[in-house]
């Protein structure tokens, strides 16, 4: 196998829970392959450098192996190698989040009133 779709590979490497989420991340320009924004159908090959943004953080990785099937987490970790700078930046971001503590939701936990709904609709372009 010389290459596989990037959305399949991201799903197989367990960066996203579903292939649809991986495809959507590509569409939203959260995935770059060799410093080029990647579309879901782009081929990924061994040796490619990927920059991935997902809810777990930002990853800079090098593709080591290809797979189009989702396996166990241990197998998924053998598909790529994360750079040391990426590991360090994710660790620092986790420490900063830990220091901030939980976010208190006070005013946003109530239901929107008529005025709030009108503002929401006008912002979204719904009329």
TrEMBL record:
The keyword RNA-binding applies. SUPFAM superfamilies: Alpha-L RNA-binding motif. InterPro entries: HSP15, S4_RNA-bd, S4_RNA-bd_sf. Keywords: DNA-binding, RNA-binding, Stress response. GO terms for molecular function: DNA binding; ribosomal large subunit binding; single-stranded RNA binding. It comes from the Bacteria. Transmembrane segments: none annotated. Coiled coil: none annotated. Residues 103-127 are annotated as: Disordered. Residues 4-62 form the RNA-binding S4 domain. GO terms for biological process: cellular response to heat. CDD domains: S4. Residues 111-121 have a biased composition (Basic residues). Gene3D superfamilies: RNA-binding S4 domain. Belongs to the HSP15 family. This is Ribosome-associated heat shock protein Hsp15. It comes from Tunturiibacter gelidiferens.
């Amino acid at each position: 196998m010389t290459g596989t779709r990037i959305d399949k590979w991201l799903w197989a490497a367990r960066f996203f829970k579903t292939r649809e989420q991986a495809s959507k991340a590509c569409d939203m320009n959260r995935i770059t392959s060799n410093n080029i924004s990647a579309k879901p159908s782009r081929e990924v090959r061994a040796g490619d450098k990927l920059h991935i943004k997902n809810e777990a953080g930002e990853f800079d990785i090098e593709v080591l192996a290809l797979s189009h099937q989702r396996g166990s987490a241990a197998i998924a970790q053998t598909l790529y190698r994360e750079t040391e700078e990426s590991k360090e930046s994710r660790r620092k971001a986790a420490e900063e989040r830990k220091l901030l503590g939980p976010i208190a939701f006070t005013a946003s936990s109530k239901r929107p009133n008529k005025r709030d709904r009108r503002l929401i609709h006008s912002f979204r372009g719904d009329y």
